[in-house]
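agent> step 3/5: call structure_predict on target 'Di-copper centre-containing protein' (Ophiobolus disseminans).
agent> reason: downstream docking stage needs a structural representation; sequence fetched in step 2, passing through unchanged.
tool.input:
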Amino acid sequence: MAKYFIILSLLLAFCTATSHRLRRHAWHTLTPAQNSSYISAELCLMHTPSKLSLPGTTSRYEELQAVHQLEMMQWFGGDGRPQDGCITNGPFVNFTNHLGPAYAYTSHCVTRRFNETCSAQTAQVFVDECVAKGDWLGAWTCIEGKPHTGGHGGVGGLMLDAVVSPRDPLFYLHHTWLDKIWADWQVRDLPKRLSEMGGDNVQDEGNLPLPFPPRPDSIPKSTGADGDPGNVTTLEHVLNMYGNGPNRTIGEVMDIWDGVLRYEYVEPETGGY
Ligand SMILES: *[C@@H]1O[C@H](CO)[C@@H](O)[C@H](O)[C@H]1NC(C)=O
Ligand SMILES: *[C@@H]1O[C@H](CO)[C@@H](O)[C@H](O)[C@H]1NC(C)=O
Ligand SMILES: *[C@@H]1O[C@H](CO)[C@@H](O)[C@H](O)[C@H]1NC(C)=O
Ligand SMILES: *[C@@H]1O[C@H](CO)[C@@H](O)[C@H](O)[C@H]1NC(C)=O
Ligand SMILES: *[C@@H]1O[C@H](CO)[C@@H](O)[C@H](O)[C@H]1NC(C)=O
Ligand SMILES: [Cu+2]
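tool.output (status=ok):
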């Protein structure tokens, strides 16, 4: 299968440790050939039949979304068309997804509704503000507030579905960017920030940025507290991969450089860190 130049975030947390670090490049620095490889890899996942028997899934791509759907409690084409929000161009124009909305299973196109007011919240000035925070709780809530929500709202459509937003391939670009903001915050105080974790492990449902429908009885409840002694997230917290790969603890994925993920970022300006 075509090479990934941008790894799919925690969804690839099951990558076995390799002797060399993988390198994550910024999308705008890819060559046309690398660009096509990445898009082909996503199309390949969309066209490869599912194998894990997760509810509603028909492809490997949907099995990755299922992790988000099941766990949630707490050149990609342009905007959608006015009448139904379906995208009208780009490589995913004919893609039919089968998970969602929320916990339902229906066949539908990729929908978007660009909103520049929301996108403005992803501006560099807000990112800089978050990266400057002195502790994890400050950085996390800051990232969640503007850069994270701004990306979901800025694209709109499927990206505004809190349960299955990974249905839009843009989700992975947005979230790998958020991963990088986290790493940018970490490198400002190493090694301390390779083990700094905290915050609620179950979302406070009264205080969500996106509408969040109740989970139906047919979907087993995730306790949210797997591995934690209480309701605070710890390094022992288990990331349930639902068979997409081995479960990992948060402690295992904190150090992107030398932990199980083992990758580094290639900065267009400096050549990487
Ligand atoms: C990336 O590839 C898509 C099609 O695969 C093409 O339309 C687009 O122009 C390419 N962009 C760049 C920057 O190479
Ligand atoms: C989408 O389907 C139409 C009709 O079959 C076809 O003409 C078009 O090339 C397809 N586009 C892509 C990007 O696969
Ligand atoms: C864009 O999002 C803002 C903030 O949520 C909202 O007030 C506004 O109505 C949206 N604009 C459009 C055109 O939907
Ligand atoms: C977490 O647990 C503590 C102590 O048991 C409790 O006081 C607090 O309300 C809980 N917080 C949440 C968000 O459930
Ligand atoms: C992954 O974690 C979940 C939740 O802790 C657990 O139910 C499941 O059995 C684990 N799967 C594997 C393969 O260890
Ligand atoms: Cu998100």
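agent> step 4/5: record observation. Confidence is low (pLDDT under 50) at residues 1-17.
agent> proceeding.
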